[in-house]
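hey can u check if this looks right to u? its 455 residues, i copy pasted from the old doc so theres a chance i mangled smth
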Amino acid sequence: MNKNKLIAAGVLAFLCAIPTAFAAVSVKEADRLKSDLTPVGGERAGNGKDIPPWRGGLSLPPPGYTKPGQHHIDPYPQDEPLFVITADNMQQYDEYLTDGQKGLFRTYPETFRMPVYKTRRTAAAPEWVYENTYKNAIRAELNKNGDGLMYAYGGIPFPLAKNGLQAIWNHITRWRGIYLTRRASELAVHTDGDYSLVTVQQEVEFNYYRRDKSIEDLNNILFYYLSFTKAPARLAGGAVLVHETLNQVDEPRQAWGYNAGQRRVRRAPNLAYDTPIAAADGLRYADDTDMYNGAPDRYNWKLLGKREIYIPYNNYRLTAADVEYDDLIKPGHLNPDYTRYEKHRVWVVEATLKEGMRHVYHKRVFYLDEDTWGIAVADQYDSAGDLWRVSMAYMKTYYELPVTWTTIDVFHDLKARRYHLQGLDNEEQGTIDYSQEPPGDRYFTPAELRRRGRR
């Protein structure tokens, strides 16, 4: 073969590789979302043992749930643990645990437990989200570097993910509602169990899921986030505004902070990657939030396949209004008496730091729930390759919408023997309220942040 033919063959091979890495699937493949796969790409069938088939999820509130924003009623109050995993018997369940979960057993052998319940595949979303997901399957692409999402809107972009980049984009853009308001607290827990609350009022508008928009109208905005600190008094009045972009390499997220004492709004240009989050006392970095967020450009992403894992699921008891914070917050970890784990199939995605890139985590392994694409567990390793941190999202289905999402996220530092958590609202008057109409783009501006901060 002559030189020109070799060059032509190389170009052809490169072009043929692009669809596999970054582009959409065929109509024939997409039609699997209407047959053997769920509308978002999970397996409809069970495993024939302890994972049941998916039959549409949970989309109706149980009796007693009467108004939006009300603390959720447990739809399965009769469920009892099938068994409890402890440090003494963890070897028996080794294949269904992540390295991070095993690390928690080794770090807290006397107190950490995982009560395992009957698996209930409650994940659900509105029909229009499923319809958009099907459309995305045959049109969505990533840009040439995989750093930006194109031709997708209002649904999972890659329900038949072929690689780790597509899978992590599914997590980043997964269905979490259109507009929500919530008052909740986060806290860092010391080794003795002591803690102090930072309470915020949050508003989030998921621009990507606005039904009055289209692909052309997104303007590279995934969502708008606005939060005002309510307590403690020394921090009250401060606020943060974020414009989350779909392509953060070409257009980084835009963030502003409002200082109540100075009554000034300032840009926060470095709120990304491994920037420490002030309220987390060093236990959470910017891209730890939501298990992972932001630009994926610092890592190489590899899809390792599927596993059956015990993950936090249907955690209604954990978020009940009659449970006090002191009942939940214990040294080292949440009180296991209130947690619920179930066996689910997960996609395993490994992220390894690219050569020449900087980040405190050299490797991260994410476990994505097949029915939602949400990361349920994240194991994170330091530069020496040692397991350092493990994060878990305690999910449940907000049946009033419906959407299956986290309710409390917990970030464990195994070396410091401390943890941080977000989303605590048991002692608030209510939980996430999805009932209000989205206020629109003009509401989430620095000028509006300044105006509201001066009230």
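The longest helix spans residues 3-22.
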